[in-house]
Amino acid sequence: MSFAPALARRPDTPLADLAERMLQAAAPPALVAHCHRTYAYAEAILDHRGLSPDREALFLGATLHDLGLTPTWEDPSTPFEEHGAAVAHEALVRHGAPPELADLVHDAIRLHLDLTTGDDHRPEVAGIHLGSAADVLGLRLDEIPAPTIELILKTHPAEGLAPFLHHAFTREAQHKPHCATAVLIRDFHLLDTLRHA
Question: How far apart are CA 139 and CA 149, in angstroms?
Answer without folding.
Answer: 12
